Amino acid sequence: MIAHIFAERCTGCNDCVAACPTHVFDPGADGVPMIARLDQCQTCFMCELYCEADALYVAPDQRNPEAIDPAAILASGHVGRLRHDYGWDRPAEGEGHLAEFWRLGPLLREGAEIAARRYEDRAKLRAADQCPAPLAASLNERS
Q: What number is the average pLDDT over the span 57-82?
């Protein structure tokens, strides 16, 4: 789950805002993006991958926000590690195993939009009380 934005490193490019498939970020008035919808973070690391300034830290726990010490995280070497390990900080060298990796962002966004529509449809059925009891129980189990 997104845990911290290092404002002093942020260039204000808003690539993280654009890359996030679940719209976790909003552009900030001061140029530094804001974590606006933490509960929507899927811990997909797309924001961290697209941040060339290494200004984001995504904690590995998807369910619970993590209390972190920003100085300790910077000292650990974890900031930007994923982008480096996947080779995003190296020049493209032709067709490799990461050549199409950039396509993941839009696909995740599409999946999040489909999930949101399904959630809205289920909520409408429940609200209208048009859903038979066995189906309502089944929908509640999946939510």
A: 84
Task: Report the alpha-carbon distance of residue 49 to residue 39 in Å, rounded.
Answer: 20
Contact 49/81 with Cβ under 8 angstroms?
no
The CA distance from 92 to 85, in Å, is 14
| Lookup: tokens for 76 | 């650990």
d(CA 143, CA 121): 12
Beta strands in the chain (DSSP E): 2-5, 25-26, 34-35, 56-58
User: Quick check: 60 and 43 in contact, CB under 8 A?
Assistant: yes
Question: Is the pLDDT assigned to residue 66 strictly greater than 80?
Answer: no
**Residue 127 structure tokens:** 């609200």
